[in-house]
Amino acid sequence: GFSRDKVKLAADPAFLLHANDSTKQWFRRSKQPNEGVVAIALSQGICQWSGVPREAWLATWVELIERMIQCWGVSVVLVPHVQEPYANDLIACTDVWRLLGFPAEVSVLGSDYTASEYKGIISECSMVIAERMHAGIAGLSSGVCTSIVAYSVKARGVIADVLGRELAEEGAVLEASDFVSAETVWNKIDRIWSKRSLVANQISQQLPQIQAMARSAFEMIPAALM
User: Residue 198: in which H helix or E strand, if any?
Assistant: First the structure.
């Protein structure tokens, strides 16, 4: 029953988060020059929300990562962005790494990083694929080609605002329900990988507006409470 003038659109304040310089520099030194790195933020709880069987989800990620290494020539870092008792992404990352056979091209960011420290690392990657929204926002707000796995309207809305609906359809949005078929998901991420420079350019154009929308929340809330 609210009137429209009482509903204001803002952006997630995570778009304003500072990327930690120390982890950024460490990660840059730890990789060979010009080596492509894909960050994948797995969610321990996504199967619960998407209804995809965990075994199928794990098998899909294993095949996708193997294809990335073989076809794109990249290394992969698995990002456990949420480490809470109810949903510890470190378990999901380790399970996938174990099923891959602990290859040298794959590593898990297993230290107890802060969100800012994770963002510092993510900002140095060539692409981010995120089942965790705030890992995806870390990529988007750093100008990194980003795909977000959607199990609700949130991912579709964020990507539509930053990248537009066309790139969302091209692979910037991945449906969580598709993670029973590596082929289906691969076709999308391979397409968006080939357009990563275009995606990064689109982000750079839209980011100032999105960050201004994020800052607006800090102006509207005090005014509303007065």
Answer: helix 196-225
Tokens of 6: 């009482």
Task: Return the closest-CA partner of residue 117 out of 31, 211, 29, 21.
Answer: 21
pLDDT of residue 226: 73
Dihedral angle of Cα 60, 62, 66, 68, to the nearest 10 degrees: 60
Residue 106 dihedral angles phi and psi, to the nearest 5° = -120, 140
Among 129, 42, 152, which residue's Cα sits nearest to residue 94? Answer: 42
Question: pLDDT value at position 121?
Answer: 95
Q: Quick check: 196 and 127 in contact, CB under 8 A?
A: yes
Q: What is the mean pLDDT of the chain?
A: 92
Instruction: Give pLDDT tens digits for 169-184.
Output: 889 999 999 999 999 9
- Tokens standing for 16? 């304003």
What per-residue string of b and e applies to 137-148 under the rule 16 or more CB within 10 Å gives b?
bbbbbbebbbbb
What are the CA-CA distances from residue 106 to residues 38, 57, 96, 100 (Å)? 10, 18, 10, 9
| Burial of residue 116, with CB atoms counted within 10 A of its CB: 0-12 exposed, 13-18 middle, 19 or more buried | middle
8 A C-beta contact, residue 148 and residue 168: no
Averaged pLDDT, 135-154:
94
Q: What is the pLDDT of residues 44-94, one digit of tens each?
A: 999 998 999 999 999 999 999 999 999 999 999 999 998 888 889 999 999
